Amino acid sequence: MPQTYNYDQYNVSFPQDGVAVVEINRADAMNAFTPNMILNIGKIFNQLATDEDCRAIVLTGAGDKAFTAGLDLKQTSLAGSGGKDSARTMISELRPLLLSFQNAVTQAEKCLKPIISVMHGYSFGMAIDLTTATDIRICTSDVKLSVKEVDIGLAADVGSLSRLVKIVGSMSWVKDICCSARIFGADEALRQGLVSAVYKDKKEALAAALKLAGLIASKSPVAVQSTKEILNYSVDHPIEHGLRYTAAWNSGALQTADIPEAVKASLTKTTPRFAKL
Hints:
Keywords: Fatty acid metabolism, Isomerase, Lipid metabolism. This protein has two domains: about 10-215, 2-enoyl-CoA Hydratase, Chain A, domain 1; about 220-270, Orthogonal Bundle (Lyase 2-enoyl-coa Hydratase, Chain  A, domain 2). About 45% of the residues lie in helices and about 15% in strands. The protein contains ten helices and nine strands. The strands form two sheets. The protein has a six-stranded mixed sheet with strand order 1-2-3-5-7-9, with helices on both faces. A three-stranded parallel sheet has the order 4-6-8. Helix 1 links the parallel strand 2 (about 20-25) and strand 3. Helix 1 runs parallel beside helix 2 and helix 8 (about 220-235) runs antiparallel to helix 9. The radius of gyration is 20 Å and the shape is globular.
């Protein structure tokens, strides 16, 4: 039976074979994240990771105004409950809370199904935290991006500072946007490599994301998920270690029935059909 997804403020749908769309569904609040929403996005990616009907994922936000405006400050308290000194509050309350948020966002990275983020409108704070943990980022020409946390007296603490430095080539630019919290647009994001494509509007961007997700979903799931795993490993390891890990991983993956199926399809000019994982 197909898996079911029932999470507050999210819609999960399968508009085409092998492709899941995860929509942040809180448009009346510009898709701002509550603490429970942060935890739930991790649960969704964790569930999709084991859903045999899912081979690629598109992440988007409901409405026309925002992918997400960031953290909902009205519903989020980063202060302790009182009655404790600051060290005890940090150890017993704030650190576990931040770690749970970080772990939830990291599920996007750990999920072996490739995730395509489609950013539009306001894409602040959590938008950067979340999408930098995904695999492919595209946006609309009117997107407004910002690592916004310093404007509320915080260093971004759910992933932006750790991941941007690995995604973007210029540390100068990363420090510029993270220390100033200035808003920047699609052209600058494309130039710096934060996104790989810019589209006219949300409709066009979402269509492009679905087309790409469909293409990915048509490939061998063993090959695609192996590729994501090896690329993620290689980011943080020397080439020699990456090659060794590739050899170890592919020792098992090369036994897949997908290789003869793909070769046969190539020789006969037919469409290969790969079994679910």
